[in-house]
Amino acid sequence: MPAASGKRFKPSKYVPVSAAAIFLVGATTLFFAFTCPGLSLYVSPVIPAYNAVVFLFVLANFSMATFMDPGIFPRAEEDEDKEDDFRAPLYKTVEIKGIQVRMKWCATCRFYRPPRCSHCSVCDNCVEEFDHHCPWVNNCIGRRNYRYFFLFLLSLTTHIMGVFGFGLLYVLYQVEELSGVRMAVTMVVMCVAGLFFIPVAGLTGFHVVLVARGRTTNEQVTGKFRGGVNPFTNGCCKNVSRVLCSSPAPRYLGRPKAEQTVLVRPPFLRPEVSDGQITVKIMDNGIQTELKRTKSKGSLEVTESQSADAEPPPPPKPDLSRYTGLRTHLTLATTEDSSLLGKDSPPTPTMYKYRPGYSSSSSSAALPHSTSAKLSRVNSLKEPNSICESGHKPSYRSEPSLEPESFRSPTFGKSFHFDPLSSGSRSSSLKSAQGTGFETGHLQSIRSEGTTSTSYKSLVNQTRNGSLSYDSLLTPSDSPDFESVQAGPEPDPPVGYTSPFLSARIAQQRETDLHGRFAGAASPKHAAPREPSPVRYDNLSRHIVASIQEREKLLQQPPAPGREEDAGLADSGIQSTPGSSNAPRTSSSSDDSKRSPLGKNPLTRPALPRFGKPEPPPALRVRSLGSPDQPAAPHLGKSVSYSSQKTASQAGGPETEEVALQPLLAPKDEVQMRTAYSKSNGQPKSLGSAPPGPVPLSSPTRGGVKKVSGVGGTTYEISV
Amino acid sequence: QVHSLQELRRSASLATKVFVQRDYSDGTTCQFQTKFPPELESRIERQLFEETVKTLNGFYAEAEKIGGSSYLEGCLACATAYFIFLCMETHYEKVLKKISKYIQDQNEKIYAPRGLLLTDPLERGMRVIEISIYEDRCSSGSSSSGSSTSSSGGGGGG
Q1: Dihedral sign, CA of A375, A381, A384, A386?
Q2: Average pLDDT over residues A470-477
Q3: Most buried residue, A61, A397, A556, B123, by most Cβ within 10 Å?
Q4: Transmembrane ranges (chain A) (predicted)?
Q5: How far does the CA of residue A327 sit from the closest CA of chain B (Å)?
Q6: Which domain holds residue A205?
Q7: Which of B55, B11, B6, B17 has its CA nearest to residue B143?
Q8: In the predicted model, what is the mean pLDDT of chain B?
């Protein structure tokens, strides 16, 4: 049997079944030998006969449950799985009596598991209508042998009750003279019977309920239908009759292979094709056609799904290599709308849960990133911030220009947008960065696993090979844009979520790019769908530029106060340092400008208490700047340093904005600031400055330090 | 071997396979989708295909039917401690034999002449009906892929 191939003899798995057999046969034999003669003599000969019948029944069912094939599916052959693993969705849905049921891809058996089928890890087989793996019979209980297992439980309960009862009768009524041996043996048998009665009866009761409800143990234990409707039930009576009275299902394994006696020989007959029947097959060359096709519903959509998906997942490579994820996302709507006769093909919605089963590292981290694209994007953005706090700066810096460069790589066209992350060496460092890094890290790990040519189809769902798919990271509208713009660098979409891992240099580059293409179609286009992201690079660039300009203006005013203020600000924050008490008007105003929407107090300068350290070396700050800042470096060094706390542009952005324009402030800036705080936390570390620490909201109010609460509950100390 | 004859004779090669999936809309009862696969568009009439699948579905429904005969069979099996299974065929197995015969019949009469071949779903664990599509391949020529309409359709052999 293919299923059993390669298995070594493991004695441990035979222990329970052996023990069960020994107890059963042994105790019953003792009962027959020691108790029954007396009973038959003095009570009735029917007793042993009855017990014998019951015992025979128990044995027969026990044997059938143990040795019968539970309904193992044979492994699918190669040709059933035409599709490249990496591009196939992990799940397919079918509609069963109005209820959506998910079929999971079984990597071992290489097919989508039919409903109620499950893969037994002990037996390493997919079993039809899998109930559970029973160690006492050392076999899976499935469609074919569930009946025997159930009857075994019933008969065993009956048998135990009989043995115990008749033994009790024997002992209590002292049926025959008190022979020490017989009495003792009967007592022992009774003890054994009594001991086993409780679990066996409990299990029997449990299965009676399951049969009545039409559920399997697997479904009951995993809570599949908790609070929901079970699509597999036909009512109590029908369920019971189905279990007990249906004809035993055939086994799939071990069948004699049918000889193919029919010869196929040309010439072949062809059906007449009328004009009306000619179907046009659209060959996809891009997302637009794909979109149209999938949205058009109708026969093309249907037939494509039928044939292409046939057994294994989706469609031919050239068509959907890039957009299978998108396609499934799109087709979900259509297929759900269309007839519900188990169209199992495309409908793997991008709303699918992310199944950690196959992925190794990303399981926990990935969970928040499942479902909608927006959600994943937002999460991806937020998580990096928290990660930044923990100070993964070094890893950031080790990841120069990961995004922009690779994004423009010529290989982009071939695979999905995350071709960028194909640098294996970086992937390892990123991966170690962990946390949100998981996204890029994971992708990179995938890439480094050699899946370079594959696309990350159905990215929200996990793909069959366990890789995470990331098209959900971009809203569907993004992808077409991506494709249409083609190999042109489009840092915008990935920017949002990969930003935390970009070093300052990347930020520089990014800003230059952004400036360069600020007016580009891409950015606004991508900005729009990425509404939830708190940080926007296009905005940042504007702000950065503006902030720098303003900064210059400000600094041309009293330099001394400016410097001090800068020193205070140097920690890339609005300073709260008691030391720098004279907050220069200029900087304060610049800060205020940032803060005005927040505090409405032009004279107050919100302090980012975290960055209490004044005067970091200008050089460091300059380095941390993005490119726009650099030209103004000397002056702006200090101020800009705080403004560009962004190792990622994100961090820097808000802070420059703090310096920058007040009109540019928006609620999102608040978020940015907050995120900047977290980023800045890391920043000072890397700069060798004061530990980020928790926001020292508790910093003492010295003379001339005001506390201002900003939007979002943040409190700033402003030195007046 | 008479090589000259073989050269005259045209051979068929397996081009591709189509898989007709199970229809789970009614639970786990065994039935297959009657949706017509596009690959067969130019190979067989829609009606013939649908009829085949519908007949198969009917057979499976009959096999899984819970009625008097299956109940009696169960009782008998219980009474004989399932030794009866050594001698007798179950109802399901009997219907499966009928199905096998039917498929072979269909293959001979309808599918093979069109360069198609049905495979008993039982071999695949009743998950799919596999339809193999053959292409005409002249012994000297190369095979064409997919279900493209070849010009051999009308040509005479030999």
Answers
A1: negative
A2: 45
A3: A61
A4: 21-43, 49-68, 148-173, 185-210
A5: 19
A6: 11-71+135-245
A7: B11
A8: 82
Chosen from A150, A268, A272 to mutate, greatest number of chain B CBs within 10 A: A268
Residue ranges in A222-271 assigned as alpha helix (H): 236-245
Q: Which residues from B are below 8 Å from A260, CB to CB?
A: 117
Neighbour tally for A285: CB within 10 Å: 11
Closest listed residue to residue A126, CA positions, set A138, A118, A115: A118
Query: Is a pLDDT exceeding 70 seen at residue A398?
Result: no
pLDDT score, position A53:
95
Closest by alpha carbon to A328, among A298, A310, A351, A358?
Answer: A351
Q: Which of A60, A79, A246 has its CB closest to that of B66?
A: A246
Rounded mean pLDDT of A356-384?
41
pLDDT of residue A444: 41
pTM, rounded to two decimals: 0.54
3-class DSSP state of A482: helix
Residue A181 burial (CB count, 10 A): 8
Look at A108 and A360; give whichever has higher pLDDT.
A108
Q: In this model, does residue A431 exceed pLDDT 50?
A: no
A354 near A315, Cβ under 8 Å? no
Cis omega (within 30 of 0) for bond into A267: yes
Handedness of CA B94, B96, B102, B104 (dihedral sign): negative
**What's the confidence (pLDDT) of residue B43?**
87
Q: How far is A334 from chain B (nearest CA, A)?
A: 17
| Selection from A636, A601, A567 nearest residue A717 by Cα | A601
Structural tokens at position A424:
């294996």
Q: Evaluate whether residue A114 is within a structural domain.
A: no
Question: Chain B residue with minimal CA distance to A96?
Answer: B25
Structural domains counted in chain A: 1
Residue B5: predicted pLDDT: 60
Residue A690 forms part of a structural domain: no
Confidence grade of residue A293 (pLDDT, cut at 50, 70, 90)? very low
Q: CA-CA distance, A607 to A435, in Å (whole number)?
A: 29
Average pLDDT over residues A59-69: 94
Average pLDDT, chain A: 61
Please check whether residue A67 lies inside any domain of the structure.
Answer: yes
* Residue A344 φ then ψ, to 5°: -95, 0
Return the exposure string of A185-208: e unless at least 16 CB atoms fall within 10 Å of the residue's CB, then b: bbeebbebbeebbeebeebbeebe
B115: closest CA among A271, A262, A273, A268? A268
Question: Pick the residue with more confidence: A266 or A54?
Answer: A54
Positions of E strands within A552-605: none
Catalytic (active site) residue A120 = no
User: What tokens appear for A279 in the block?
Assistant: 């179907």
Q: How confident is the model at residue A241 (pLDDT cuts 50, 70, 90)?
A: very high
Return the closest-CA partner of residue A563 out of A590, A587, A589, A595: A587
- The residue from A123, A134, A140, A388 that is catalytic is A134
Round the CA-based radius of gyration of chain A to a whole number and report it.
Answer: 36
What's the pLDDT at A9? Answer: 75
Beta partners for residue B32, in sequence order: B22
Read off the pLDDT of residues A610-621 as tens digits, 9 standing for 90 and up.
Answer: 444 444 444 444
Considering CB atoms only, which of B12, B43, B73 is closest to A247? B73
Asked if A242 and B66 come within 8 Å (Cβ–Cβ), the reply is yes
- Of A27, A646, A572, nearest to A396 (Cα)? A646
Question: Tokens 């490579």 label which residue?
Answer: A317
Q: Report which of residues A701 and A543 the model is more confident about.
A: A543
Count of CB atoms situated within 10 Å of the CB of A664? 17
Domain assignments of chain B as residue spans, ordered by start: 2-136
Q: With H, G, I as helix, E, B as strand and everything else as coil, classify residue A547.
A: helix
Domain annotation covers residue A29: yes
